[in-house]
């Protein structure tokens, strides 16, 4: 076999493997999307016909809409707070060597490793104890939920901001200062624009992981004020009609649009 | 535009002296070059002038004003970085405008000044490009325009040519020098390349181990090197090591020469290759040597001559019509005018 044809074979195998993985990842999405257009209530094969009725059912379902709003609010607030913590933390980790440097780095990534159910339970116990000790209404409060979700956002934002800081040439900051820019101006005009893709990508992934979180939220939500994943789970306990598929497709669409729009402004491929 | 004075400038990191008691004065409009091997403290000195390194002791004055404790952004120096450090998310024009914006110059005044600065480096037509769309030489010129546009008191250049290829380096160094002279701006450049230093400077500063070893013109350094270190670092030198005693210089290999230097004991004699006279016949003051290596470079020819088992010198002869071009293994006779001798004990001891 010549070197050239061996290389062709290598490339072909690689492409085939990539295609296979891609299929494996998209099969659930394909089936959910297909199911959401079924006409019949009980999912069975072959479909009796197609319709958009489950979409209108999903949109008309007030519990879904309320839960969607709650999830969006929690996700956005958690992302903002998470960024406010992660940006200074990532800058400190990137620029200074201090006692406990590695420990802090690991601590900030921890929520990614600890199972959501453990995290949720731990937060639950913590909130109970704090409420007993202080008398403040923390249990099942909206802000209690938001601060729980901040933990989901931090690892993503820290990780991705650190990645973009690693590729940032600090002589650019010196150049700006030499040209007359103080520290804040230097950060705003030179550092920020360079690490923006990392910040945006971190915020996006953080938001998505908050938005889709089920296990941790189960411990933290108040009755009546649930997030979308919990609302879906509750609905599934009684019925299995394709409304769930429809609401899932809507969710996927929103996230996909967010990704595409963001990618137009900052090339996510540069950081992820 | 202003002069620059460094007084007793010292930077210590723990026990390590990055610079030690650096004393320098740069006159208004002068081009001073700091020359030395890596780690000699020249870059630290430049960074202290720019304000990125706080001196442990000493003071820096620009235009008579003490700036020692001022942050970089209040010093009005224009620094050209080794890697150019152009802002990648800004166009060439935005890069050049940055320094003017920071000084609160009115918008309508910025555009023409940016254009002028770019014309100065012949890049007026590329104002809307991004740095990544330009060659290294062009980026270098943008960096220069960016550092000059706000009329800094002092232009600082940190190894500005080391990322360019050899041909470009020759062009750009003449350009920088011509520009500096035309604008009459005070400039300090750091380099480890002596050829670069010699072609660009009004005056040179040779540094090693954080200390200034000699300050002077090209001629001063070349003709009257203060120490053995300078003799070896600026220009080429062959060194003969031996001992001076009773008016004679003797090497372990048995070479003996008359010597009237006021040095006693172990000594080193520095010889410039192009000052050597090579002839086929013995002549006054000549010593015989065997040709060990011939490096034919066209206009010039290097001869490695073995004077004794321990003594090897390089003589450079020019390739003129009728000049002697010996072959490998030939014996020739070589002599030299008064050479500088240095005490062997300390590479920084004064020579005679």
Automatic annotation (TrEMBL), chain A:
<keyword id="KW-0813">Transport</keyword>
<keyword id="KW-1003">Cell membrane</keyword>
<keyword id="KW-0472">Membrane</keyword>
<keyword id="KW-1133">Transmembrane helix</keyword>
<feature type="transmembrane region" description="Helical">
    <location>
        <begin position="12"/>
        <end position="37"/>
    </location>
</feature>
<feature type="transmembrane region" description="Helical">
    <location>
        <begin position="146"/>
        <end position="169"/>
    </location>
</feature>
<dbReference type="InterPro" id="IPR000515">
    <property type="entry name" value="MetI-like"/>
</dbReference>
<feature type="domain" description="ABC transmembrane type-1">
    <location>
        <begin position="68"/>
        <end position="262"/>
    </location>
</feature>
<comment type="similarity">
    <text>Belongs to the binding-protein-dependent transport system permease family.</text>
</comment>
<keyword id="KW-0812">Transmembrane</keyword>
<keyword id="KW-0997">Cell inner membrane</keyword>
<protein>
    <submittedName>
        <fullName>ABC transporter permease</fullName>
    </submittedName>
</protein>
<feature type="transmembrane region" description="Helical">
    <location>
        <begin position="243"/>
        <end position="261"/>
    </location>
</feature>
<feature type="transmembrane region" description="Helical">
    <location>
        <begin position="105"/>
        <end position="126"/>
    </location>
</feature>
<feature type="transmembrane region" description="Helical">
    <location>
        <begin position="190"/>
        <end position="211"/>
    </location>
</feature>
<dbReference type="InterPro" id="IPR035906">
    <property type="entry name" value="MetI-like_sf"/>
</dbReference>
<dbReference type="Pfam" id="PF00528">
    <property type="entry name" value="BPD_transp_1"/>
</dbReference>
<feature type="transmembrane region" description="Helical">
    <location>
        <begin position="74"/>
        <end position="93"/>
    </location>
</feature>
Automatic annotation (TrEMBL), chain B:
<keyword id="KW-1003">Cell membrane</keyword>
<keyword id="KW-0813">Transport</keyword>
<dbReference type="InterPro" id="IPR017871">
    <property type="entry name" value="ABC_transporter-like_CS"/>
</dbReference>
<protein>
    <recommendedName>
        <fullName>Spermidine/putrescine import ATP-binding protein PotA</fullName>
        <ecNumber>7.6.2.11</ecNumber>
    </recommendedName>
</protein>
<dbReference type="InterPro" id="IPR050093">
    <property type="entry name" value="ABC_SmlMolc_Importer"/>
</dbReference>
<dbReference type="InterPro" id="IPR013611">
    <property type="entry name" value="Transp-assoc_OB_typ2"/>
</dbReference>
<dbReference type="GO" id="GO:0043190">
    <property type="term" value="C:ATP-binding cassette (ABC) transporter complex"/>
</dbReference>
<dbReference type="InterPro" id="IPR012340">
    <property type="entry name" value="NA-bd_OB-fold"/>
</dbReference>
<dbReference type="InterPro" id="IPR005893">
    <property type="entry name" value="PotA-like"/>
</dbReference>
<dbReference type="InterPro" id="IPR008995">
    <property type="entry name" value="Mo/tungstate-bd_C_term_dom"/>
</dbReference>
<keyword id="KW-1278">Translocase</keyword>
<comment type="subunit">
    <text>The complex is composed of two ATP-binding proteins (PotA), two transmembrane proteins (PotB and PotC) and a solute-binding protein (PotD).</text>
</comment>
<keyword id="KW-0547">Nucleotide-binding</keyword>
<dbReference type="GO" id="GO:0015417">
    <property type="term" value="F:ABC-type polyamine transporter activity"/>
</dbReference>
<dbReference type="InterPro" id="IPR003439">
    <property type="entry name" value="ABC_transporter-like_ATP-bd"/>
</dbReference>
<dbReference type="Pfam" id="PF00005">
    <property type="entry name" value="ABC_tran"/>
</dbReference>
<keyword id="KW-0067">ATP-binding</keyword>
<dbReference type="InterPro" id="IPR003593">
    <property type="entry name" value="AAA+_ATPase"/>
</dbReference>
<dbReference type="InterPro" id="IPR027417">
    <property type="entry name" value="P-loop_NTPase"/>
</dbReference>
<keyword id="KW-0472">Membrane</keyword>
<dbReference type="GO" id="GO:0016887">
    <property type="term" value="F:ATP hydrolysis activity"/>
</dbReference>
<comment type="similarity">
    <text>Belongs to the ABC transporter superfamily. Spermidine/putrescine importer (TC 3.A.1.11.1) family.</text>
</comment>
């Amino acid at each position: 076999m010549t070197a050239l044809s061996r290389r062709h074979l290598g490339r072909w195998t690689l492409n085939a493997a990539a295609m296979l993985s891609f299929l494996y990842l998209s099969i659930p999405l394909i089936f959910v999307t297909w199911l959401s257009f079924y006409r019949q209530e009980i999912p069975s094969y072959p479909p009796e016909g197609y319709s958009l009725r489950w979409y209108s059912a999903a949109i008309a379902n007030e519990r879904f809409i309320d839960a969607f709003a709650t999830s969006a609010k929690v996700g956005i607030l958690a992302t903002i707070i998470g960024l406010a913590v992660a940006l200074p933390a990532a800058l400190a980790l990137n620029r200074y060597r201090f006692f406990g440097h590695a420990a802090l780095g690991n601590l900030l990534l921890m929520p990614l490793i600890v199972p959501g159910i453990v995290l949720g339970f731990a937060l639950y116990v913590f909130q109970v104890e704090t409420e007993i000790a202080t008398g403040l209404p923390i249990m099942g409060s909206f802000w209690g939920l938001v601060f729980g979700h901040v933990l989901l956002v931090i690892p993503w934002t820290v990780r991705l901001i650190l990645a973009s800081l690693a590729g940032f040439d600090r002589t650019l900051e010196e150049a700006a200062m030499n040209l007359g820019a103080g520290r804040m101006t230097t950060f705003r005009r030179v550092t920020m624009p360079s690490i923006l893709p990392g910040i945006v990508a971190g915020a996006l992934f953080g938001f998505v992981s908050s938005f889709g979180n089920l296990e941790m939220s189960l411990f933290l939500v108040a009755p009546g004020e649930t997030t979308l994943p919990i609302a879906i789970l509750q609905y599934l306990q009684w019925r299995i009609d394709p409304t769930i598929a429809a609401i899932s497709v809507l969710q996927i669409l929103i996230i996909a649009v967010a990704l595409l729009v963001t990618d137009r402004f900052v090339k996510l491929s540069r950081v992820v | 535009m202003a002069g620059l004075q460094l007084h007793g400038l010292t930077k210590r990191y723990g026990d390590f002296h990055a610079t030690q008691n650096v004393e320098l004065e740069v006159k208004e409009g002068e081009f001073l070059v700091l020359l030395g091997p890596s780690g000699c403290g020249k870059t630290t000195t430049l960074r202290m002038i720019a304000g990125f390194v706080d001196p442990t002791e000493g003071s820096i004055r620009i235009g008579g004003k003490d700036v020692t404790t001022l942050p970089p952004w209040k010093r009005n120096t224009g620094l050209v970085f080794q890697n150019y450090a152009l802002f990648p998310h800004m166009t060439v024009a935005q890069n050049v405008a940055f320094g003017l914006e920071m000084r609160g110059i009115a918008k309508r005044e910025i555009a023409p000044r940016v254009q002028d600065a770019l014309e100065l480096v012949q890049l007026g037509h590329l104002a809307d490009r991004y740095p990544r769309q330009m060659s290294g030489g062009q980026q270098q010129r943008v960096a220069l325009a960016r550092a000059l546009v706000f009329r800094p008191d002092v232009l600082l250049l940190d190894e500005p040519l080391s990322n360019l290829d050899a041909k470009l380096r020759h062009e750009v160094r003449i350009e920088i020098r011509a520009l500096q002279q035309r604008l009459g701006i005070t400039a300090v450049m750091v380099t480890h390349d002596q050829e670069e230093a010699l072609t660009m400077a009004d005056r040179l500063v040779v540094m090693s181990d954080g200390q200034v070893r000699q300050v002077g013109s090209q001629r001063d350094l070349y003709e009257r090197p203060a120490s053995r270190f300078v003799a070896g670092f600026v220009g080429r030198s062959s060194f003969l090591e031996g001992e001076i005693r009773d008016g004679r210089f003797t090497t372990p290999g048995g070479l003996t020469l008359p010597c009237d230097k006021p040095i006693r004991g172990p000594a080193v004699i520095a010889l410039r290759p192009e000052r050597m006279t090579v002839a086929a016949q013995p002549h006054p003051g000549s010593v015989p040597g065997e040709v060990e290596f011939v490096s034919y470079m066209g206009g010039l020819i290097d001869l490695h001559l073995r004077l004794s088992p321990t003594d090897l010198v390089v003589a450079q002869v020019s390739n003129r019509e009728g000049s002697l071009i010996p072959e490998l293994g030939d014996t020739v006779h070589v002599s030299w005018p008064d050479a500088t001798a240095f005490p062997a004990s300390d590479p920084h001891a004064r020579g005679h």
